[in-house]
Amino acid sequence: MKTVLTFILLFLLNFTFGQTEQKNSAFTFGEELLFDVTYGWLNLAEAKLQINKRVVTENSRPHYKIDAFGKTKGAATIFGRVNDNWGTHIDTSTLLPTLSYRYIEEGKYRKNEKVHFDQPNKKAKMELYDRENRNLKETKEYNLPGQVQDLVSGFYYLRSLDLTNLKKGQSILITGFFDKEIYNLKLIFEGTEQIQTSLGLKDTYIFSPLMPPNKLFRGDYPVKVWVTKDQNKIPVKIKANLFIGSINMDISSAKGLRNN
What we know:
By secondary structure, this protein is mainly beta. The chain has one domain (2-254). It is built from two helices and 15 strands. The chain has a 15-stranded antiparallel sheet that branches. The longest helix has 10 residues, at 2-11. The radius of gyration is 18 Å and the shape is globular. It starts with a helix and ends in a 5-residue tail after the last strand.
């Protein structure tokens, strides 16, 4: 169950594209999105996506600092306590990451990692720290196939795209750098749907990733995400069909949105 929960907490972040400079009119500094994660009647966890209120500077250029937090709560901790922080610094003009990081606490497991991206030269440098996140243990450099995203920045780039002309069944090839590897994901647009959320009735786009056969999820398209059709393009619901039951992530609140 802990593996499933970790995947769901991070699924919002798994939309990563190679790209050129992109204009953003969907999000801004100070945005905060909160989510509840449930399995049947069990309230498993809470998740948060947060853009810092102030600009950060990397290489003399302004960046968004964006964090994704996920933690178990209540009875769900019997499966193993999760308290994760994934983050990124993305250039406000290109929406490319310059720095990504993850601080992972899952049961007794710990991982503290930073990745520095040199997008013009297609390089990434990974720094792995010790359990207390104090001492550097390992450094390694990687070649990139082009401009890439990390798990967090990619979703915000997706929100900046014009989705209005997508056709049902159209696919988007997704490329990114994560956990020392280049990976690809095929994202299928499944159409639109009007759904009830804690923010009211919302018109949404529906996306599903084509996933390889595995022992965790049921069907070729076991995970779906609903993104609002308004200018903000925020995720409001995610559903993952497991071999036994399903897990849902539903938005509980949103503040600091760029567009009212």
